[in-house]
């Protein structure tokens, strides 16, 4: 029997809530089924897809076959120097497109800043006119 003169029991402090951990992967990180010889990645970045993507949708078997056929065709018809030259050409085109997009973005931002300044001037003029009407 509890002593009536004793203090009521204090509530226990609630345990610290932690975010739930993600469910375990169906394949352990060290499983040989998880890694592929096409990728030399550390086990923490091991790919589940044979073509080496770390995420997203894997290629379908027909897409993979088409990719491998195109790659074999390129390797059979071009030398390493030609492949490197073509790579440089394509990357230069992509860089040019990106530079143009950046220039356009800066132009738009400049126009937007000009419009913001014009709007601020219009607001100040409106406040002055409004003040004169109310005061005059």
What class would the helix/strand composition place it in? mainly alpha
Low-confidence stretches: none
In N-to-C order, the SSE pattern is HH
Mean pLDDT score: 78
Structure description:
The chain is mainly α. It contains 2 helices and no strands. It has helices at 61-77, 80-135. The longest helix is centred in the C-terminal third of the chain and has 56 residues, at 80-135.
Sequence-ordered SSE layout with sheet pairings:
Layout: H1 61-77, H2 80-135
Descriptive labels:
136 residues, mainly alpha, 2 helices, elongated
Can you give me a brief rundown of this structure?
The chain is built from two helices and no strands. The radius of gyration is 33 Å and the shape is elongated.
